[in-house]
């Protein structure tokens, strides 16, 4: 009963002071900062940091088509495996928060493969975050031939995914 009374007293005090008692925010406080941090993690090949940027239900679309992302590849083990074979670099041209949880990004992505080949892609995407500041949706538009080149080269390295 004492715990219940203390909880009620804490809630009433918080309400009187105008302090929120919600455990989580209603939205991601700064999705632009979060997206920048995740891309930096990928750029420096920090698998654990990169994995923390993705929600379990993450989906990626390219030109309106679900890419059916294998979410195992977004786990720390998946990123560690990827970074052993593929490197990524991002040259951000435009980055803007367009609503509470969504960021508009235009960028060049340089995908580096073990044979030295680098495939350049220009893409524009809307990236949506959940209230835990993890990406739930990456909806990009870009040149299909560039995307196909990256996909084909990646399938050569990872035929089992």
In quaternary terms, these chains amount to: single chain
Widest sheet: strand order?
2-1-6-5-4-3
Shape: globular
CATH class: Alpha Beta
Rg from Cα: 20 Å
How would you describe this protein?
The chain has 161 residues and is α+β, with helices and mostly antiparallel strands. The chain has one domain (30-157): Nuclear Transport Factor 2, Chain: A (Roll), CATH 3.10.450.50. It is built from five helices and six strands, in the order αααββαββββα. It has helices at 2-17, 31-43, 47-51, 76-85, 144-157, and strands at residues 54-62, 65-66, 87-99, 102-112, 118-129, 135-142. A six-stranded mixed beta sheet has the order 2-1-6-5-4-3. A hairpin with a 5-residue loop joins strand 4 (102-112) and strand 5. The longest helix has 16 residues, at 2-17. The radius of gyration is 20 Å and the shape is globular. Mean pLDDT is 87; it is low at 1-24.
């Amino acid at each position: 009963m004492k715990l219940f009374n203390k909880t009620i007293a804490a809630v009433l005090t918080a309400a009187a002071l105008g302090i929120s008692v919600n455990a989580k925010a209603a939205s991601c406080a700064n999705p632009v900062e979060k997206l920048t941090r995740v891309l930096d993690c990928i750029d420096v090949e920090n698998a654990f940091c990169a994995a923390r940027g993705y929600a379990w239900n993450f989906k990626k679309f390219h030109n309106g088509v679900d890419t059916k992302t294998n979410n195992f590849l977004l786990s720390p083990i998946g990123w560690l495996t990827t970074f052993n074979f593929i490197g990524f670099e991002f040259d951000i041209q435009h980055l803007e928060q367009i609503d509470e949880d969504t960021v508009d990004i235009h960028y060049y992505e340089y995908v580096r493969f073990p044979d030295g080949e680098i495939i350049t892609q220009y893409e524009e995407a809307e990236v949506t975050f959940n209230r835990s500041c993890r990406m739930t949706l990456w909806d990009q538009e870009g040149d299909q031939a560039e995307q196909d080149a990256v996909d084909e080269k990646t399938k050569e390295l990872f035929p089992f995914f």
